[in-house]
Amino acid sequence: MPTALITGITGQDGAYLAKFLLGKGYRIAGLLRRSASSDIIGERLRWLGILDDVTFVDGNMTDLSSLIRVVKDVAPDEIYNLAAQSFVAASWQQPLLTGSVTGLGVVNMLEAIRIARPEARFYQASSSEMFGKVQEPVQSERTPFYPRSPYAVAKLFGHWSTVNYRESFGMHASSGILFNHESPLRGLEFVTRKVTDGVARIKLGLADKLALGNMGAMRDWGHAREYVEAMWLMLQQDEPDNYVIATGRTSSIRDLCRIAFSYVGLNYQDHTVTSSDLMRPAEVEILLGDPGKAHRQLGWQARISLEDMIAEMVEADLSRHRARLKA
Ligand code: NDP
Ligand code: GDP
Fold this sequence. Notes:
Elements: E1 3-7, H1 12-23, E2 27-32, H2 43-47, E3 55-58, H3 64-74, E4 78-81, H4 88-93, H5 95-116, E5 121-127, H6 150-169, E6 173-178, E7 181-182, H7 191-203, E8 210-212, E9 218-219, E10 222-223, H8 224-235, E11 242-245, E12 251-252, H9 253-263, H10 268-271, E13 272-274, H11 292-298, H12 306-326
Parallel strand pairs: 1-2, 1-4, 2-3, 4-5, 5-6, 6-11, 7-10, 8-13
Antiparallel strand pairs: 9-12
Helix pairs in contact: 1-8, 3-5, 5-6, 7-9, 7-12, 9-12
The structure holds NADPH dihydro-nicotinamide-adenine-dinucleotide phosphate and guanosine-5'-diphosphate.
NADPH dihydro-nicotinamide-adenine-dinucleotide phosphate binds next to helix 1 and strand 5.
């Protein structure tokens, strides 16, 4: 039975990846940072019905000694490094923490592997945010980077560190440059989930308006359930590499609102307001990925449409709020 270590297992992707790998017969160890809220920290895993099927190991991305101990004890065949301060807007409020977790944390893990388990295969969760102020209309593995936030700068450091450890030490270290991916388990602060939760609350009469920032920004949105499969496929290849994972379609926040509100029979223009407080100091206006290499080399392709994903998310948020109202 192969063993996988997942950092960030309590997040959106960690939960879906754990479920996917359990289905493939893996033993799963998940890095858990100590928290006063440990009773609720496994909510996403519980939602997927797998909380009792994973083992938690104690550590923090900023503490190299904890990572060395974990890698030694778990002896994983594959390590998926998903842990990060992952919210772009927060990275201007906490740039140093973002640099240390999202950037330096990657090198902490690479060092732990180099010291304790050099034969393990490594996946780094890189991000389309690294393209930032885009240098080409469609972004591929060959597009130059231009990060626009402390988060993106930190991710770029993690990406190049992964490439460097591959080239320096022959490690099987791959970097997945994933475009935005969402699901009912997405954090409430991200725009898709904020909108689907807002739609549910407005539909149920719990709110009337939803405040948003830049409605013109465009993203290439896919479904997290499909994107975690691409992570696994990267680690099954003979050679490590970099891969863009995307749908190849881009839509605006306005499009997202139109789809989500009209799903419950509402007009988004009646219920959305823009707030200058939600604008970012530097914006990534548009992202659109070219998933051609992933399709050719991994046989991977996004299949779930934005409309179907938004419908799934609105339904999940309606159910959550209805359950709360009943309680
Ligand atoms: P989430 O924000 O949902 O999850 C982040 C995870 O990192 C949580 O489990 C969190 O733990 C953990 N974490 C944060 N800080 C530390 C720390 N110091 N030590 C250990 N663990 C820590 O992110 P997603 O699941 O959405 O994303 C997964 C990865 O993919 C992230 O690295 C993200 O930046 C990257 N990514 C995501 C994209 C997306 O669209 N979702 C796009 C491209 C890249 P806790 O629960 O304790 O807070
Ligand atoms: P990101 O691409 O990782 O930054 O994902 P987000 O979901 O946080 O943001 C996607 C885009 O939506 C960005 O261009 C934001 O500026 C834009 N946006 C507009 N209004 C909001 C909002 O209220 N919250 C968030 N999170 N983003 C918003």
